[in-house]
């Protein structure tokens, strides 16, 4: 059966073989086998072993495996063991980080375990919503999350917020009658409720029609598989870099191999030369260091309320140039707040209400009596607008439970969208008064009297009406939501009718707004300072959205504001022409969000998108960085996103951008450190091959440097604190290469300096007729020289400007690396394992001085260029 909204209650009950008494317990097992559980399917996650194996797909890893095989064949078992140990360590690191990210997501999913109130065998009971079955009779009330798609059997003023599905922020009034029209959209199916929606008002009895993946929520979740994840700029850069480096290594190794054979060296020794060159060229620790640096970044961001699902998204944030943010809850507090009162011709600020004013306190009393929301011990239940009315009462010691107990509600006329009013009949000082709240234009038209400041009631005059309308327009233009309140005395003991809602005594207006978060304005200013364009995308009305955007600095004079209907009428080409000038989008649909993201991406911009609803999920997946809300977000939006805000706060995104930019700078500096050191090794090996010298490094030397002593400074560089000017830089271009000309020339120059002193050290030992001593001198000088070089790569400035103690990790890395090196050189037990010879005190002195020379030269150049 389809189109449940067009079927009668009896037809649906018959179809599911259920009744008002609910499903029979004896039938549950059979039904569960037929329908399954009320849960969304998630993609089958890769096991740890599969993730581990995937770490070996990298081409550089394959080259290392070949090098390990050649080392094994040539009898260098130590080198083989070290190479394989390194590759395995990198794979384990990558696997652990992947599994940690998965666990973070699972912990978020467990944050909410919804329950459902059902009737089974005539008994009311509470069960996990995952156990619901089609045909179950469910009871819902204000504050509940709808647990499945269901047809409404009985509705008692039910209003539901379906923004998670439709993007519509206003609650929808629900009915139980049959709808005869065909092909109705979700938003028009007024007698249906849908999984994931929030009940904001009233209560209802339902019969479940669809569960799990058959719900509207499940259908959108299934569509997500069609949208591919975006590859991050760092992933693209590292991939390009890896390919280019691999080709260069292969070419170099082939050249060296044939040069060695041409000089009469046997094939096995020639292969060893080539292996030494390959090991010198490959930055074995690069993958693990990038992973470790990004992992450190994710831990830092987790403390700042941002959980990263996809590791490389940390770096993507660093080059974001556009942030498309939802308004409600992200830029604003997601909490309606009373801003002004209007009584007897004057505007009263909500912070300045006088307790001794009869009219001001009378308006607050009327607002509380003509509402159903409650706030008990901070637990707020009800429509957000009514909660705002209750909360302003609390501020002036007017507690709703006490007020409603003192002025008893006798009867009510519930709100409906046709009348745009709600009325309650209350006993006030032995008299029965009808209190009505509603749309200002309706209440104004029905007002005959007006309440004055002193409590007197007078006939309303034309000037009063003009003042009220003027105040209403001013509030509306400021993006405020306005309610009007009226009252009249009603005769005792008679039925209340809609016709009674006229000839009111006008009490006043109350304006309210979902105010911006205090930190949003600063966060937006920081965005603009960082060269990032903030864009507001909301389901709210244009006037309200524009007012908030203007207040926090997103909307500037000259910017454009569009609503969904206007976006709909634009072609993709027209949108592309306007998108850079549009700061606010109002009343937009999920399809519009995808078009907006696509337009920015076509302009070459890295786009971040926030969202919380199921309808946001496709756009979150389409964006370069999808950011889901941890508090208000649906599970589907969290699954689609690459980052989750646990505080739903825009300023957290800006903090993450700072972290991302700093991490990218640190990763680039780490790569500079690794490649300049490796360049020194390549140049030294290539020079030795060209000049017909013995192999100056055993593969184990280079692996010791690349993996043990180099890894520590590289990780320390990755932990360098921000220099404080990160937000003054513009976002880098998405296609910007990891190795630009400036960085490449730096790497070559610094590598050449270290290579020169390394070869000098080799000759100091070799001239004495000892190739082993020359090799040991070259190895120790290269190793120590690269350890010193770690201080050069912390940033652009000299060590005087950066400060030696601002990153103590770099000091510890240097000391620990030096300790490793000297242990190998001094302790005899390590000599055979690492192929080193005994050194004299003079050798140690020569090696230390030579190793420090490149750093001294680089520091002098840095001081001249950056510090003066």
What is the strand and helix layout of this fold?
Elements: H1 9-15, H2 28-35, H3 48-54, H4 59-73, H5 77-109, E1 115-120, E2 123-128, E3 137-141, E4 149-161, H6 163-166, E5 172-173, E6 192-193, E7 198-210, H7 216-223, H8 233-262, H9 267-281, H10 286-303, E8 306-308, H11 313-317, E9 322-325, E10 337-343, E11 346-349, H12 358-369, E12 374-376, E13 379-381, H13 384-395, H14 400-406, E14 409-416, E15 421-428, E16 431-438, H15 440-445, E17 447-451, E18 457-459, H16 462-477, E19 481-490, E20 504-513, H17 520-529, E21 533-538, H18 542-552, E22 560-563, H19 564-569, H20 572-578, E23 582-586, H21 590-602, E24 607-611, H22 617-622, E25 625-629, H23 635-640, E26 643-645, H24 650-690, H25 699-709, H26 711-718, H27 741-766, H28 771-792, H29 799-802, H30 808-826, H31 841-867
Parallel strand pairs: 9-21, 9-24, 17-20, 21-23, 22-23, 24-25, 25-26
Antiparallel strand pairs: 1-2, 1-3, 3-7, 4-5, 4-6, 4-7, 8-26, 10-11, 10-20, 12-13, 14-15, 15-16, 16-19, 17-18, 19-20
Describe this structure in words.
48% of the residues lie in helices and 17% in strands. The strands form 4 sheets. Strands 10, 11, 14, 15, 16, 17, 18, 19 and 20 form a 9-stranded mixed sheet that branches. Strands 8-26-25-24-9-21-23-22 form an 8-stranded mixed sheet, with helices on both faces. The protein is built from 31 helices and 26 strands. The longest helix is centred in the last third of the chain and has 41 residues, at 650-690. It is elongated, with a radius of gyration of 35 Å. α17 runs parallel beside α24, α24 runs antiparallel to α26 (711-718) and α27 (741-766) packs antiparallel against α31. By secondary structure, the protein is α+β, with helices and mostly antiparallel strands.
């Amino acid at each position: 059966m389809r189109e449940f909204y067009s079927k009668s209650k009896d037809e649906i009950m018959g179809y599911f073989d259920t009744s008002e008494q609910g499903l029979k317990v004896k039938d549950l097992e059979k039904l569960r086998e037929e329908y399954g559980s009320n849960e969304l399917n998630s993609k089958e996650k890769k096991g740890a072993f599969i993730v581990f194996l995937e770490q070996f797909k990298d081409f550089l890893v394959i080259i290392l495996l070949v090098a390990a095989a050649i080392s094994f064949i040539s009898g260098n078992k130590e080198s083989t063991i070290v190479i394989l140990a390194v590759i395995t360590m990198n794979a384990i690191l990558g696997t652990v980080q992947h599994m940690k990210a998965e666990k973070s997501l699972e912990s978020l999913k467990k944050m909410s375990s919804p329950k459902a109130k059902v009737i089974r065998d005539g008994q009311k009971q509470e069960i996990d919503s995952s156990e619901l079955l089609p045909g179950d009779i469910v009871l819902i009330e204000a504050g509940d999350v709808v647990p499945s798609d269901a047809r409404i059997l009985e509705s008692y003023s039910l209003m539901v917020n379906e923004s998670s599905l439709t993007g519509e922020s206003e609650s929808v009034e629900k009915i139980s009658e049959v709808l005869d029209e065909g092909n109705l959209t979700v938003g028009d199916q007024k007698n249906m409720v849908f999984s994931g929606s929030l009940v904001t008002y009233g209560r209802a009895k339902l019969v479940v029609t669809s569960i799990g993946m058959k719900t509207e929520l499940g259908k959108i979740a299934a569509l997500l598989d069609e949208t591919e994840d975006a590859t991050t700029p760092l992933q693209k850069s590292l991939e390009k870099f890896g390919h280019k480096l691999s080709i260069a290594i292969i070419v170099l190794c082939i050249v060296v191999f044939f040069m060695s054979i041409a000089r009469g060296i046997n094939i096995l020794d020639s292969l060893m030369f080539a292996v030494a060159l390959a090991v010198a060229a490959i930055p074995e620790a690069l993958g693990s260091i990038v992973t470790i640096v990004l992992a450190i970044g994710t831990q830092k961001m987790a403390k700042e309320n941002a959980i990263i699902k996809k590791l490389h998204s940390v770096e993507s944030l660093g080059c974001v140039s556009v942030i498309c943010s939802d308004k409600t809850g992200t830029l604003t507090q997601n909490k309606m707040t009373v801003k002004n009162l209007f009584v007897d011709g004057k505007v009263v600020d909500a912070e300045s209400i006088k307790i001794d004013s009869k009219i001001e306190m009378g308006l607050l009393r009327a607002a509380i009596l003509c509402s159903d929301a409650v706030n008990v011990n901070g637990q707020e239940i009800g429509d957000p607008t009514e909660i705002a009315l209750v909360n302003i009462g609390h501020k002036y010691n007017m507690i709703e439970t006490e007020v409603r107990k003192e002025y008893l509600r006798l009867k009510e006329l519930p709100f409906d969208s046709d009348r745009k009013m709600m009325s309650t009949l209350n006993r006030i000082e032995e008299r029965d008064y009808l209190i009505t709240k509603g749309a200002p234009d309706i209440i104004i038209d029905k007002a005959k009297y007006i309440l004055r400041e002193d409590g007197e009631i007078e006939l309303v005059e034309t000037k009063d009406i003009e003042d009220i309308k003027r105040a209403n327009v001013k509030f509306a233009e400021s993006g405020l939501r306005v309610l009007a309140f009226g009252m009249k005395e009603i005769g005792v003991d008679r039925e209340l009718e809609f016709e009674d809602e006229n000839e009111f005594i006008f009490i006043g207006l109350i304006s309210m707004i979902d105010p911006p978060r205090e930190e949003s304005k600063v966060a937006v200013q920081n965005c603009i300072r960082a060269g990032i364009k903030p864009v507001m995308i909301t389901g709210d009305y244009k006037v309200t959205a524009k007012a908030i955007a203007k207040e926090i600095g997103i909307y500037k004079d000259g910017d454009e504001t569009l609503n969904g209907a206007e976006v709909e009428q634009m072609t993709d080409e027209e949108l592309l022409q306007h998108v850079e000038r549009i700061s606010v989008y109002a009343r937009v649909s999920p399809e519009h969000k995808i078009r907006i993201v696509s337009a920015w991406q076509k302009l070459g911009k890295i786009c971040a998108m926030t969202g919380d609803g199921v309808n946001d999920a496709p756009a979150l997946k389409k964006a370069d960085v999808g950011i889901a809300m941890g508090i208000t977000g649906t599970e589907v939006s969290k699954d689609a996103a690459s980052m989750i805000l646990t505080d739903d706060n825009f300023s957290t995104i800006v903090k993450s951008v700072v972290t991302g930019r700093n991490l990218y700078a640190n990763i680039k500096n780490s790569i500079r450190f690794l490649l300049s050191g490796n360049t020194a090794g390549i140049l030294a090996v290539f020079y030795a091959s060209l000049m017909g010298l013995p192999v100056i490094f055993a593969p184990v030397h280079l692996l010791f440097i690349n993996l043990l002593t180099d890894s520590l400074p590289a990780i320390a560089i990755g932990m360098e604190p921000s220099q404080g000017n990160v937000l003054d830089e513009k976002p880098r271009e998405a296609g910007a290469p990891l190795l630009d000309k400036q960085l490449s020339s730096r790497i070559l120059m610094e590598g050449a300096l270290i290579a020169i002193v390394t070869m000098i050290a080799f000759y100091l030992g070799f001239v004495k007729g000892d190739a082993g001593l020359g090799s040991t001198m070259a190895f120790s000088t290269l190793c120590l020289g690269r350890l010193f070089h770690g201080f050069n790569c912390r940033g652009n400035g000299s060590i005087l400007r950066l400060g030696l103690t601002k990153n103590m990790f770099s000091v510890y890395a240097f000391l620990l690396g030096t300790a490793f090196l000297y242990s190998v050189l001094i302790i005899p037990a390590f000599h055979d394992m690492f192929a080193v010879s005994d050194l004299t005190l003079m050798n140690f002195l020569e090696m230390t001085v030579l190793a420090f020379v490149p750093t001294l030269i680089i520091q002098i150049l840095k001081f001249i260029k950056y510090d003066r």
